[in-house]
UniProtKB/TrEMBL annotation:
Residues 1-115, 122-245 form the C2 domain. InterPro entries: C2_dom, C2_domain_sf, C2B_Copine, Copine, Copine_C, VWF_A, vWFA_dom_sf. The gene is Cpne5. CDD domains: C2A_Copine, C2B_Copine, vWA_copine_like. One of its GO terms (cellular component) is plasma membrane. This is CPNE5 protein. SMART domains: C2, VWA. It comes from Catharus fuscescens (Veery). PANTHER family: COPINE, COPINE-5.
């Protein structure tokens, strides 16, 4: 299923005038970078607009958007003086750098930046507008029943189910849905099911959809009853005589002259509605609030020793700093005030040396927020010199700290992300589970990055991918925890940037769906885009 695609519209205002007898003839060139690479590659060019210092380019750039990747973009503007495609033959008008996340995360997904690159000159501004392409947004809900299907079981009737396939450009078919099995009947009514339209027909309403009907067998050797084909356009007409299909078994048809069909399948209902996406909420103004919690327990090792996970080397960042940078650099694009609360846990803190499990890294209990990721790193390094590493490793206090903030903003205007970086051996498992089960009702997600070589079995349990986490018999409403071991992405040398991009991709991949699951469960629709856009 295709990724989310975003269309970028480029405009400029007050470009430099490089032509003597007329105005500049601007062209915009977009460059992108592959994840982990610093090499710019040309992605595309707009058309040239003659004699214009305030161009609104018609040509759009269509990019695959990945929330969990830092997608660097560079826009270069030229005044085109001849037909040659060689850019060195044209006058440079300035450039702008940003990330796709920065554009999407701005109010109304509209970013204005000054053009730079010519010393001592004001080069004007560039205006970038991102819009999600709409063809991949609809979700169809369908329900079918069947009549007089062939009896395939020796004892009793058939146990029918259906399999749906979408056709591909090359004539092959890809499975896209399987109904449940209805036991012991030749006239089944299947439950309604929802499926993204793009999964059903990839946006082409006339493309064939093949449906096969089977009789379920316990040993997996399901008996083929028959098949029929339809298309999205036909199904979209809803319940009518056009949507009653003969189920045909081609082999039977060839063998028996009088064979009509192996039963019929009828469409009972069809509805379609646009599914709201992560970008709808971001464009509508939902802010991501990012909080960091760092493990200051003694098991990390003495910070003055190079073997410590907290060792501050003058030559390279330690694992805590690297993990913080990898995740923070991406999330900060979605937080307009760039103020990030930063907490520590498991240390003895001044002035009296009591053990704290939620102390502010900047020393200000009334406002633990630091300015930017750089501010968080600075506060972390200062704290290491101020506090004494101790124990135990308790997560519940920092989870509850963020949950208290999240509980005050339930309207969908803010979503909270807590990043816990830890060396792993958790002491308050029962309390943490309870805190997570309670937090699952709130607009928040938790990312845990495990550093060092410990066994992280407890963390895997908190990450409810396989078994949803529960506490005192209460199961978490949503899966809100994502755990990743840092060591899986450790690589020195030239590939280090790539492995950090991989770490960010892994820990952030679930955030968009977790945000959507909260909004959906609460029936919160994205607000309309602010009118100025």
């Amino acid at each position: 299923v295709p990724a989310t695609r975003v269309e970028l519209t480029v405009s400029c205002r007050q470009l430099l005038d490089r032509d003597t007898f007329s105005k500049s003839d601007p062209l915009c060139v977009l460059y992108t970078q592959r994840p982990g690479s610093h090499q710019w590659r040309e992605f595309g060019r707009t058309e040239v607009i003659d004699n214009c210092l305030n161009p609104d380019f018609l040509h759009k750039f269509v990019l695959d958007y990945c929330f969990e990747e830092r997608q660097n973009l560079r826009f270069d503007l030229y005044d085109v003086d001849s037909k040659t495609p060689d850019l060195s033959k044209h006058d440079f008008l300035g450039q702008a750098f940003c990330t796709l996340g920065e554009i999407v995360g701005s109010a109304g997904s509209r970013l204005e930046k000054p053009l730079i690159g010519i010393l001592g000159k004001k080069c004007g501004t560039i205006i970038l507008l991102a819009e999600e392409l709409g063809n991949c947004r609809d979700v169809a809900t369908l329900q079918f029943c069947a009549n007089k299907l062939d009896k395939k079981d020796f004892f009793g009737k058939s146990d029918p189910f259906m399999v749906f396939y979408r056709s591909n450009e090359d004539g092959t078919f890809t499975i896209c849905h399987k109904t449940e099995v209805v036991r012991n009947t030749l006239n089944p009514v299947w439950a309604a099911f929802a499926i993204p339209v793009r999964a059903l027909c990839n946006g082409d309403h006339d493309r064939a959809i093949k449906v096969e009907v089977y009789d379920w067998d316990r040993d997996g050797s399901h008996d083929f009853i028959g098949e029929f084909t339809t298309s999205y356009r036909e199904l979209a007409q809803g319940q009518s005589h056009l949507n009653v299909y003969e189920v045909v078994n081609p082999r039977k048809k060839m063998k028996k002259k009088k064979y009509l069909n192996s039963g019929t399948v009828t469409l009972l209902s069809f509805t379609v509605e646009a599914e709201h996406t992560f970008l709808d909420y971001i464009r509508g103004g939902t802010q991501l609030n990012f909080t960091v919690a760092i493990d200051f327990t003694a098991s990390n090792g003495n910070p003055s020793q190079p073997t410590s996970l907290h060792y501050l080397s003058p030559f390279q960042l330690n694992a805590y700093s690297l993990a913080l940078r990898a995740v923070g650099d991406i999330i900060q694009d979605y937080d307009s005030d760039k103020m990030f609360p930063a907490l520590g846990f498991g240390a003895k803190v001044p002035p009296d040396g009591h053990v704290s499990h939620e102390f502010p890294l900047n020393g200000d209990a009334s406002n633990p927020a630091c300015h930017g990721i750089a501010g968080v790193l600075e506060a972390y390094q200062r704290s290491l010199r101020r506090v004494q590493l101790y124990g135990p490793t308790n997560f519940a206090p920092v989870v509850n700290h963020v949950a208290r903030s999240a509980a005050t903003v339930l309207d969908g205007s803010q979503y909270f992300v807590l990043l816990i970086i830890t060396d792993g051996v958790i002491s308050d498992m029962a309390q943490t589970k309870e805190a997570i089960v309670n937090a699952a009702k709130l607009p928040m997600s938790i990312i845990i990055v495990g550093v060092g070589q410990a066994e992280f079995d407890a963390m895997v349990e908190l990450d409810g991918d396989d078994i949803r986490i529960s506490s005192r018999g209460k199961v978490a409403e949503r899966d809100i925890v994502q755990f990743v071991p840092f060591r899986d992405y450790m690589s020195g040398g030239p590939g280090a940037g790539l492995s950090m991009a991989g770490l960010a991709r892994e820990v952030l991949a679930e955030i968009p769906d977790q945000l959507l699951s909260y909004m959906k469960a609460r029936g919160i629709k994205p607000p309309p885009i602010p009118p100025m856009f």
